[in-house]
Amino acid sequence: MISVVTRFAPSPTGRLHLGHAYSALLAHRYAREQGGTLLLRIEDIDPGRAREEHVQAILGDLAWLGIGWDGEVLRQSQRLALYAEALDRLKVRGLVYPCFCTRSAITAEIAASASAPHGPDGPVYPGTCARLSESERSHRAHHEPHAWRLDMMKAVREVGDLHWSDAAAGEVLAEPDRFGDVVLARKDAPTSYHLAVSVDDAAQGVTDIVRGRDLFAATDVHRLLQELLGLPVPRYHHHALLADEKGRRLAKRNGAATIADLRAAGADPKRLAADLLDGILPAGFTSAAP
Ligand code: GLU
């Protein structure tokens, strides 16, 4: 039997808050209960937002919480060649196309259209660059910065129905087409969350993905990429998100307390970890800042 390998995969764009800690604790507990391994992967592909100081703070906060990981810490910023190689495989098959649109052009086009379909992440890309001629596409690709988008309908037609399984939800039919032509490589980074996470979970031999329910829908896209790239399919354990007393999910923008705030306030890490695993939040957690 293959032993369980799970992972915690934070993006170092800020300090860990209680929601991250909860997710990390669940992944850690699952690995320990199963006699498996917990890997730590730093998802630092966003050059504008990822910072080294946050990486160091995350390592410190996890250690403070008593969460030990196995093996070396993997950093996505050092693996860009692997993502480029995966993208190349999709290029060769005509499953991706370059997109020259700016964010504001996409927003304007969506605003001007009578019926802009919405996906789990908001309005879907209107397909502007999918309609370019082959010659315009290759000419502009040499001169203009561009992202790479998945030709979703072509990809879905190629693979047919796909399923994945979640510990709580059971067997799930993947409906990645709801997302439209997702970005697989950004203008400012030669990959995207969807591509990097799919490549790395396979490369690291991850068998079980423990993460928040906010990423439940995105799993449909990951399942599709796994199929297109011939990658193994892990089991998923999407957990409920902790909410504050107003019912809002814990997030930086909602003022959720960071682990740094709790450390500074003298919280006992063992107690905090045990309480979080029981779904109990420390008093005054929504905003520790005065
Ligand atoms: N890096 C993602 C985040 O911090 C998590 C990715 C994942 O668990 O698949 O939200």
Q: What attributes does this structure have?
A:
290 residues, 37% helix, binds glutamic acid
Give an overview of the whole structure:
The chain is 37% helix and 16% strand. With 290 residues, it is of the alpha/beta class. The mean pLDDT is 94. It has a 3-stranded parallel sheet with strand order 1-2-3. Strands 4-7-10 form a 3-stranded antiparallel sheet. Helix 7 (193-203) crosses helix 8. Strand 5 and strand 6 form a beta hairpin. It is built from 10 helices and 12 strands. The chain has helices at 18-33, 52-64, 80-92, 103-112, 134-143, 152-159, 193-203, 218-229, 259-264, 269-277, and strands at residues 5-8, 37-42, 74-75, 96-99, 118-119, 122-123, 147-150, 163-166, 170-173, 183-185, 208-212, 235-239. Glutamic acid (GLU) binds next to loops.
- Overall geometry: globular
Main β sheet profile: 3 strands, parallel
Strand order of the largest sheet: 1-2-3
How many helical elements?
10
Tell me how many strands there are. Answer: 12
Strand content: 15-25%
Our Rg estimate from Cα atoms comes to 20 Å
Secondary structure elements and pairings:
Layout lengths: L4 E4 L9 H16 L3 E6 L9 H13 L9 E2 L4 H13 L3 E4 L3 H10 L5 E2 L2 E2 L10 H10 L3 E4 L1 H8 L3 E4 L3 E4 L9 E3 L7 H11 L4 E5 L5 H12 L5 E5 L19 H6 L4 H9 L13
Parallel strand pairs: 1-2, 2-3, 11-12
Antiparallel strand pairs: 4-7, 5-6, 7-10, 8-9
Helix pairs in contact: 7-8
This protein binds glutamic acid.
